[in-house]
Structures are given as structure tokens and as C-alpha cells.
Request: fold
Amino acid sequence: MKKYEILEKLHENYLVAVVRGKSEEDAIHMIENIIEGGIHNIEITFTTPNAENVIKYFSQKQNESLLIGAGTVMDSSTASNAIQCGANYIVSPHFDAEISKVCNLYAIPYLPGCGSVTEIVSALKMGSDVVKLFPGNLLGASYIKDVHGPIPQVELMPSGGVTLENMHEWYQNKAFAIGIGSALSKDATDGHDAIIIDNTKRFVDKYNELRG
Reply:
């Protein structure tokens, strides 16, 4: 049941912070601010230097509400490394059957980035329960409704282009969860922790408003 417990928590937390740190220290600092702001699904991208160390750092924290994932995973060896470091889920910008096999072996959810129905179906056949819509800003929220017409069983999570202004569209179109990236650090500079915390709280407040 491990895989489905992770997916349940991912859905319950709903907001996924996609973190691309300039350094290991920058990523840790940013994530600590995001957690303080109220988002507990954290996707640490492998474009972050020493991303595996950041994953290990947060996966070892005694915080049951946290769900630590690895993002921008480009191959199966990186996926395996991330899982050994404690990643609870794996995200890639593309669909890769070998990554899927590794994740299935360890009962870890794999969220591949897909931009077409053909890619989505391929991901479903290889065991993906949730598919990342990427790039979300190009596909748009109505794409979920379009896909759910012929494939109602697929769960979709947008990543890219999610803002406070369009968040309600993704929610109303039944996104499984939503990935939020640069919007969390908008207008923040080094040492301005309060801005990241405030940006995060705005998304949390908006989500709480949407779900009533």
C-alpha cells in the first residue's frame, strides 16, 4: 500500500512546490521557507546542485506531513539514486519506460511529463497513476477536461504556469494536484525570507478558499 499512501498524501496536500535551487544551501533555505508558508509537497529538481543531498536532508526530518519528491529526473539511474536518498515520488519532464520500471520495483509513484494523449496512454500502460501535464502553461486547464472525456480514469497534475490568478481553473477542471514553481519565489532576493513565506501562504489560502 506504500505507493497509494504516498499518492493519497500528495492529493491531500495538493500544492506541490517545485524547487530549483542555485545551490544546495539555497534550496534548503528556500524549502524551509516554503514549509513555514504551509506547502508540504516538495519536489526537489535535479537541476539543483547536489540535489540528492537536499532530498536526504529533508527525508530524514521527523515531519509526517512532508512529502519529498525528486524532479527533473532524466534517467533510471538518477531515479534509483533519488529513491535511495529517500524520495517519495519521482517526476520527469518526459515519459521514460526505464524510470517507470525502477519506480514500480520500489513501489514509488512516477509522474512523467506528458503533453499528448499518446504519451499519457503510454504512461498509464507502464503503471503511472498520476501524469504530469507539461508544459501546463501551453496546454491550459481545459486540457484536463478534454483528456478526461476519452480517458476519465487518468489523474493529471499540471506543472508550469500555475499562478494565483489561474489556480481556480486547474482546481475546477479536477487537477489531482498542482505544481508551483517560480511563483513562490517571485520578487524574492537573497535574505528576503518573508517574501517566499508570504507567497506560499497566498497559494495555501487560495487553495483553502477553493476547497471550502
Q: What stands out?
A: The chain has ten helices and eight strands. The CA atoms of residues 185 and 197 lie 9 Å apart. The longest strand covers residues 15-19.
